[in-house]
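Example record used in the benchmark description.
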Amino acid sequence: MAQLEWSEELSLDFPIMDDTHHEFVQLLAEVQNASDDTLLMHWANLIEHTDDHFGREDEWMLQTAFASGNCHTTQHKIVLQVLREGLQHGQNGDLKMIRAMADELVNWFPQHAQAMDASLALHMRRVDFDPVTGKINKPEALPKEAIHGCGGDSCSDSEAASEMATEAKSDASVTA
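Model output (C-alpha cells):
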C-alpha cells in the first residue's frame, strides 16, 4: 500500500488551502497506518476533516463566481458520499473496504489537488480573494459569468477558464 506524503508538488501557493491539504495527507496516513481497532475512529476523523475542507472550498467557489454547479463541487459531493458509505461498511465489519478506499484516495487526491484545486487557487489569487474575510480585493478580475465545468480548459467552455490556463502557463514559465 503506497502512502501519500506531503510534497511541494501538492503545494498550491495558497496557504489556507495548503494547510488543509497537508492535514488531509496526515489524516489519510493515520487511516492507512491504523490498527483494525482504531481504523473506524481515524476514518471518521478523515470524513469530518474532508466535510469541512470541501465545504470551505465550495463556499469560496460560490463567493468568487466559480459556479456551484461545476464538476469540482460535484466531485466533492461524490467523494464525501463514498467516504460515508465506507464508514457504514466499516461499521458493519468490512474494514477491507475502508483500507481499499484509503488506497484509492492516495491516487485520487494529488490529481484533484493539482487540477481542480490548483484552478481554484489560481482564480482566488487572480481576484485577490481573502478566504478569512471573504473579501474580493480585485472585483474587476471576477469573470463576467460564473465559471462552469471545473475551471480548466478540459471541462469548461468559459473564456475566464481559458484566461486562467494561459495565466498559469505564464506563471509557470516565469518560475521555471
